[in-house]
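Subject: Adenosine deaminase

B.,
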Amino acid sequence: MAEPTALTTAQIRSVPKVLLHDHLDGGLRPATILELADEVGHALPADDAASLGRWFTESADSGSLPRYLETFDHTVAVMQRADHLRRVARECVEDLAADGVVYAEVRYAPEQHLAAGLTLDEVVRAVQDGIDEGTGTVAAGGGRAVVVRQLLTAMRHAARSREIAELAVAHRDAGVVGFDIAGAEAGYPSTRHLDAFEHMKRSNAHFTIHAGEAFGLPSIWEALQWCGADRLGHGVRLIDDIEVLDDGEVRLGRLASYVRDRRVPLELCPHSNVQTGAAASIAEHPIGLLARLKFRVTVNTDNRLMSGTSMTREMQALVEAFGWGLEDLRWVTVNAMKSAFVHFDQRLAIIEDVVKPAYAEALRG
Ligand SMILES: O=c1[nH]cnc2c1ncn2[C@H]1C[C@H](O)[C@@H](CO)O1
Ligand SMILES: [Zn+2]
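Prediction pasted inline below.
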């Protein structure tokens, strides 16, 4: 697809990026975790920011999704008070803007933030207050504006998905643009949550489903054909339905064909997939082939803390592994913006007024 380039980290950071799959509880600053844990009396596995950051990336590097997910105990523990949720959300917006992100959908599971007595509505409002504050700080700093929206996640193993879907719809005019399910995939099929998805559809609302990460094609098939997901969280195992023959000919199975024909957006998260064992390495990550085959590929961080990553780092890795250039980065960015859950006119405005002019300028050098 692309001729080899030598894009620098600074160049990649400076171009506009769009992020559809980023967990709020997977992106805290280690220094903030230390401060908040001290306030609430939560014991942490390390006592300085650098060691704590290392602990998260090393523990998440387990090759297993369930073990990867255990690390969230320490972030969720410090996100139980309204002021703490507000701070984490504000810092998230600031960090994304500093990474050159112009539009992001940030997700978390409200049901995991009720331990100190907040209601589900209070959780969503506290996060929104933080997003508004962060957006304001970024605007005041004079940099490029960032638009951040919430996705509300329900945990697959729990039984609150219908309630969370209703919560997402109730807050649709107050910063929430969609719904998701996450958590351990094997053993917890998406079809357990059909009533939640039906509620979203009946409300003309959008949702994505984590599928095809720790479990393969049946999970992707269910997410699309039983649940009606608008996008796939990861979807990386779609590669199991694609055959590359010795002469280079590529054959798509029926599910892979459907996904490509219908332009189903794939929220791919390269470093996270390597950590959970869904891909062996970045160089062997299916994103290279999926992009070549023109699937609706998007690039995402998943959990910036657990993967020690950023949009710039994810893109840099793809530039190095697959020789991607600015045209490829623009392509995944436009793909992501087209697949966003905000209204069409807002998507178009960001593509036309922000993404395209900045890439045109970067391409002129
Ligand atoms: O990559 C993931 N797969 C499945 N679940 C995930 C992933 N990353 C984070 N989560 C879970 C852990 C969080 O506590 C929850 C809500 O953000 O979503
Ligand atoms: Zn995720």
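Residues 21, 23, 182, 210, 233, 302 surround zinc ion (ligand 2) (CB under 6 Å).

T.
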